[in-house]
Structure formats: structure tokens, C-alpha cells
From TrEMBL:
GO terms for molecular function: acyltransferase activity, transferring groups other than amino-acyl groups. InterPro entries: Acyl_CoA_acyltransferase, GNAT_dom. Transmembrane segments: none annotated. Keywords: Transferase. It comes from Exobacillus caeni. This is GNAT family N-acetyltransferase. SUPFAM superfamilies: Acyl-CoA N-acyltransferases (Nat) (SSF55729). The lineage of its organism: Bacteria, Bacillati, Bacillota, Bacilli, Bacillales.
Amino acid sequence: MNIIIEKALRKDKSVLKQLMEFYLYDFSEFINIDVNEHGYYGYTYIDHYWTDENRWPFFIKVDGNFAGFVLVLQDKEEYYISEFFVMKRYRRNGVGKLAAFEAFKQFKGKWIVTQILSNKPAQHFWRSAISEFTGGDFVETTDENVVKQVFVS
């Protein structure tokens, strides 16, 4: 299985928008969102990934097929996983972990990865992936809204 992340080009924005709909559908299990009058969830910041120099969109591809996305945001000296999605077909076989590792390697520095408290599967995934990537060298905190892992790549 060949797993890569590649920069999403503006010409492929419609693909990212469609994958985002799948992501938001999955995420609706954990947050209170509904589709609009046209049947879409919508994502406010999609265009910003081609207009803001501190945002980077990447597709996750497996054997050349779209398998998800990684959206990276930089705020000052810190990098964030804004949104991260792996289609169900590709989950639980290392695709997400390899995609996360590639993002961490591309942007050297301090990383902050957050998950909402109700999303236990995401917390499990990120703890495991970040622990493996850092050799356990990360700090995790929890507040009333999120679980957060902080580390340096």
C-alpha cells in the first residue's frame, strides 16, 4: 500500500469540499451540527487554505486514490492540525498514522493537536500516533472542552 500526502491544489478544491462533507457527517456524532437547506454541512474556512499563507491543505492518498485530508494551520510559532480525516475504508491500517507523521515531518517546530472531549476515538488515535512519533515525549492536558497534545517535531 502506497500512502502519501500531497498538497491540495486550488483546482482540486471541489474534491476537498466533498471530503469535508464526509468528515463533517462523521463528526456530527460528536458535535451538534446539521445540514443546511441545500443538504450540505459546509465548512467556513475552505477558501482560506488557498488565500492564507499560514494554512496548508493536503490530500491523503492510498495507491493514488483519495483517502482523506490533513489541514495544517500555523499560528505564530505553533502548528496545528486544523482538521484531519481518513475515510472509513482506510482506517485502522496505518493510513492515518503515516499521514500524520508526514505532516509533522514537513513542518518542524512546536505542534498542538486537539480533540473535543466527546471524541474518544480521536483521542485514542492521536495519543497513540503522537506517542509513537515522539517516542512518548509529549505533554497532554485536558480542560472543560478539549484534550490537547503538545510536542516538538
